[in-house]
Write a structure and sequence with these properties.
It is a single chain. This protein is an alpha+beta fold and 457 residues long. It has 4 domains: 2-44, no CATH class; 47-150, Jelly Rolls (Sandwich); 156-363, Lysozyme-like; 380-456, Immunoglobulin-like. The chain has 8 helices and 23 strands. Strands 1, 2, 3, 4, 5, 6, 7, 8 and 9 form a 9-stranded mixed β-sheet that branches. Strands 12-11-13-10-16 form a 5-stranded mixed β-sheet, covered by helices on one side. The longest helix is centred in the first third of the chain and has 23 residues, at 22-44.
Length: 457
């Protein structure tokens, strides 16, 4: 504005011949030139001088720089990368963004890594191709920043192995029984070429499955590169011993094994994902950002399969709650149930009730120690089933000769027992005291025993 005012003022004086001298004519031309150069510089960005702090292999680089508020900077490096994060002394990253291949991508706070010495870390932003240059608009950031450049791109050999693993998983999918462990990509496959973790593993008895979203790209389709990028972010930028989650689920439903369990169990290795309260938890991260969009059905189906297997394996109730550190926490919970964060995004968090019900329904088909008889059997009819009422009815074929009814939860624990001393064909069972979940009804007749499943919603 000052340049514009001076230019108009001197120009007017020259025209009016009050400042009709060569000196003011030159000054006028300089101001005109500055008026042209300043917008040009703002459009294309100032060259940002960076200082290399640390580089690791061909996949990680840390660069330090100094920026001014609300300024566009141009950064070009010798290092090729696909993902960017920054650290800055700021209250938030409001208004700060990068321009990559004409795409504008805004930074957001990395909720997994707390503020340290007044500095905040951003989430990763992704490029769809390898790049070595981008523009940064600083927004409210002023002063020193650190730029983290990550190249998670797998080599061709790893890509080939990933494709083979996905083919095997897809081929075996239709042959899997309900609640079997779903197929997944092992760390030894997706992590190839990166420095493996080296630490003493610790394990925990899981009582809570915590759902996250990565708060990253919804358009990147090289899911292995994304998983590798988060591994690099967690181990190199955050300084953690390994990736924080037990599992990561891509938008196409591919499940990646996360934190390396060594010789232990993948689902029980203690991670770093839940507000510093990681004991008794298993972390599952959905790749993508679900604050404003719905998660893909393929990812939700994979999540259902993974949760159904885990909860059936450990005898956990999808709708159950138990005390965890400082609060009551659901068996299936979101990251925001543990601390102040937007994770796992509104569009995932608002569907947790639906996810719990889907897991409950899936667990009804799990392989158990009982022989499950179809609803279509001519000897027994249970209705309504599923039920959300306070009782159920049993219609019994008189030839069955019912003697005893027992109800068990999905873990096989005894809940209700009722002896039958009459020949009524219709029997009522009070279910008001039963929580939502899957139950097994064992019916002992004069010559046989039948087991049916009951779902209470």
């Amino acid at each position: 504005m000052l340049f514009i005012f001076l230019t108009l003022f001197i120009g007017r004086k020259i025209i009016s011949k009050k400042y009709n001298s060569f000196k003011y004519f030159i000054m006028y031309r300089i101001l005109i030139l500055l008026l042209i150069i300043i917008p040009f510089t703002s459009l294309f960005g100032q060259n940002l001088k960076t200082t290399n702090i640390r580089t690791k292999g061909n996949y990680y680089s840390e660069q330090q720089a100094y920026v001014n508020k609300k300024t566009t900077f141009y950064i070009k490096e010798d290092f090729e990368f696909k993902a960017i994060a920054i650290k800055a002394r700021t209250d938030d990253f409001k208004g700060a963004y990068v321009i990559i291949n004409k795409d504008t991508i805004y930074f957001s706070i990395n909720d997994d890594y707390p503020s340290k010495d007044g500095y905040l870390y951003s989430e990763l932003v992704f490029s769809s191709i390898l790049i070595n240059e981008f523009k940064l608009f600083s927004g409210n950031i002023d002063g020193q920043i650190v730029i983290y450049l990550i190249n998670g791109t797998p080599d061709q050999s790893t890509k080939t192995k990933i494709a083979q693993e996905k083919h095997i998983i897809k081929s075996n999918k239709d042959q899997q029984a309900f609640c079997m462990e779903p197929g997944s990509i092992d760390q030894s496959v997706w992590r190839a070429g990166l420095t493996p973790p080296d630490y003493e593993h610790s394990f925990t008895e899981v009582r809570h499955c915590i759902i996250h979203h990565a708060a990253g790209s919804n358009t990147e389709t090289d899911y292995t590169a994304v998983v590798r990028s988060y591994y690099i972010l967690h181990t190199e930028t955050n300084g953690w011993s390994d990736i924080g989650y037990n599992y990561l689920i891509a938008q196409d439903g591919t499940i990646y094994k996360g934190r390396d369990p060594g010789t232990g169990e993948q689902d029980n290795v203690r991670g770093a994902h839940f507000c510093g309260k990681n004991s008794n938890t298993m972390g599952i991260c959905l790749l993508g950002n679900y604050m404003d969009v719905e998660p893909p059905e393929a990812a939700l189906n994979a999540l259902n399969n993974l949760l159904s297997w885990k909860l059936n394996k450990d005898g956990l109730d999808p709708f159950g709650t138990s005390f965890h550190v400082d609060r009551d926490l659901g068996t299936i919970s979101g990251h925001r149930n543990g601390c102040s964060t937007s994770c796992p995004g509104d569009y995932v968090y608002n569907r947790l009730g639906e996810i719990k019900q889907q897991v409950t329904d899936s667990m009804a088909n799990c392989v158990t120690g009982f022989e499950i008889i179809s609803n279509k059997t001519e000897q027994i009819l249970i209705y309504p089933n599923p039920t959300n009422g306070n009782n159920i009815n049993l219609n019994i074929n008189s030839n069955f000769g019912l003697k005893e009814i027992s109800v068990f939860d999905i873990r096989g624990q005894f809940i209700i027992n009722k002896l039958i001393n009459n020949k009524n064909k219709k029997i009522n069972i009070d279910t008001e005291s039963l929580r939502n979940g899957v139950y097994l009804i064992k019916l002992r007749g004069k010559n046989s025993v039948l087991t049916r499943k009951l779902i209470i919603r």
